[in-house]
Amino acid sequence: MAKVSINLATGSIQKEDIIVGIDLGTTNSLVAFIDPDKNPKVINDTGKGVLVPSIVHFGSTGEIKVGNEAKDFLITDPQNTVFSVKRLLGRSYADVKNYQNFFSYKIIDDDSESLVKIKVGDKFYTPIELSGLILKELKERAEHALKTPVNRAVITVPAYFNDSQRQATRDAGKLAGLDVLRIVNEPTAASLAYGIGLNPEETKTVAVYDLGGGTFDVSILQIQNGIFEVLSTNGDTFLGGDDFDRAIADYWIEKNNIDKTELAQNRELTQQLRLKAEEAKKSFAHQSIFNQQIGEIWCTIDRNTFEDLILPKVQQTIDSCQNALKDAKLTIDQIDEVIMVGGSTRTALVKKMVSEFFGRPVHDAVNPDEVVALGAAIQADVLAGNRSDILLLDVTPLSLGIETMGGLMDTIIPRNSKIPTKAGRQYTTSKDGQVNMKIAVYQGERDLISENRKLAEFELKGIPSMPAGFPKVDINFILNADGILKIQAIELRSGVKQEVEVKPAYGINDDLVEQMLMDSITHAKDDVSARMLIEAKTEAEQIIYQVERFMEKNGTLLNAEEISETNIHVEALKVALSTGDKDLIHNKIDNLNNYTRPFAERVMDVAIATAMKGKSIE
Ligand code: ADP
Ligand code: MG
User: Fold this and answer.
1) Domain-terminating residue out of 456, 489, 520
2) Which of the chain's termini has less CB crowding within 10 Å, N or C?
3) Does any ligand 1 atom lie closer than 6 A to the CB of residue 212?
């Protein structure tokens, strides 16, 4: 790959344009930037506060509220209020079905490995769209506060996020009208906020302890030559400050002899207790006893009691730290720095136990709610080429990916990835008995391959004949330091393999790269809508295919009414398909799925149950 200057690689379309750093959190989100004095600063859009609760409410007349304004609706209108959407980002229903009870809104159960959707009223939303709404709110607040357009951002994700969750975060940014220059790990951003890793000469091993509202993770990072490597992560995605609040509320419920079954009916009181508990928890930062009332109910608790209540939870996080060290094959004395992240690390007991475990004082000078966003802003500044002190590595100027069903671009190596790099993903077939798979490789940022640059095409031949969705084809992209891209395709069950090499930089110049980046930003919204419609259509076509096949094979096991009812649902889906209305298509898919699922269970036919697995290729 040609050496590209960092400005080009980051798509410096408007040179003076600001780049923001965004912490898209499970509980709270926020945005930061580098002020004219070169200091990272969080954005507080007049009076609205710094933290934007990651909550979206859909009003009955179509208005959408994000943040604090949406929070109140958690009690009054829970079905239409979406929280914790980050937990669903890039996840399939199969991933989340075990904790569906956690959510008050409706997650579509299509029992498959395709990405989850959320139903609000009669509309279907993907977690990408919902996260996009939160990002859009942050973008607008930044624009309002800074009085300038904001089009480019660095967004953080947990270190343990997989490829699909990272891609989903990128897409959410795109939907919000943001050019996402890089997805950065939250612990990396936190280190940067403390200035750790900014000096390319230094080598350090850092533990980042992040206790938020509902999630906990600890990451061990090795920083060398300005490169951050995650050695290990550990944690619990259902442990956080909310558990502390619950512990206090439960304590009061017991002390006041409140009947639990009665309380379960009283949503409002439950919520009031929860909020009062959070207030008590936070008050222990400056007082040792909390004493208030909700009507007749005494809400009294002292700090020692609070600490006794939460001790087992905090101990659990310490056990995770132990495990993270073990996985990184390190001992405590090999950790150079410990960084505290997340609102819940303000609890004194947490700080004390973490500090004792690591045997050293922890870094807690930067506000733990803000530290990730501030670090993201620093990373943005580095990418903008504003910090000459930092080593800039060769990066890929354009994304590299392959064509999937419906002519969509599936990015495997995102642009701005450091090279050399390696990435891969698994695909499957779309038709029964499909023995060949066409693999077309593209370069570019657009969602439709027709708008991108084709680099290569080859055929993986000799896939054993199996039902659609059964073959497992690994496609790996290996981009070496000279910019040669090697594409490998392997069908895992049979071992058939095919490989080609291309040079993505061949025949492309800086102007063309810049033009391609520019186009991707101006078309971002239309592209994502087009992608979503194509994805809905592809899903519908696959399901119709599977159901029709199922009927052919197992029709005798269904009675006449079931057959005709299924046909009605299939016809309705076909009609919806012709309308090009994404929500209508999802609606009819949902109906057809709900109707036919019991048949599959009855006939014990795995084919239909495993239909729609992963992304498929024609
Ligand atoms: P996330 O990263 O999951 O979005 P945050 O880092 O914003 O979450 O943390 C939110 C949590 O921090 C909430 O549970 C909140 O009650 C807790 N929190 C905020 N301030 C304090 C405080 N002063 N003492 C204890 N906990 C706090
Ligand atoms: Mg966080």
Assistant:
1) 520
2) C
3) yes
Residues 102, 14 share a domain? yes
Residues 185 and 253 occupy one common structural domain: no
351 a catalytic residue: no
Q: Is 131 in the pocket of ligand 1 (CB under 6 A)?
A: no
* Residue predicted with more confidence, 82 or 91: 82
**Is 393 part of any domain?**
no
Q: What pLDDT was estimated at residue 393?
A: 54
Closest-approaching ligand to the CA atom of 367: 1
Q: What is the pLDDT of residue 389?
A: 61
Q: What is the pLDDT of residues 575-614, one digit of tens each?
A: 999 998 999 999 999 999 989 888 877 765 444 444 434 4
- DSSP β-bridge partners for residue 479: 421, 485
b/e map 343-355, b = 16+ CB within 10 Å: bbbbbebbbebbb
Q: Whose CA is nearest to atom 5 of ligand 1?
A: 212
Model confidence at 83, in pLDDT bands (50, 70, 90)?
A: very high
Number of domains in the chain: 4
| Residues spanned by the domain of 439 | 400-520
The answer to whether 17 is a known catalytic residue is no
Residue 227 lies in a domain: no
Q: Assess whether pLDDT exceeds 80 at residue 549.
A: yes
Structure tokens at 35: 């002020």
- Using alpha carbons, select from 552, 534, 537, 535 the residue that is nearest to residue 432: 552
Average pLDDT on 30-39 reads 94
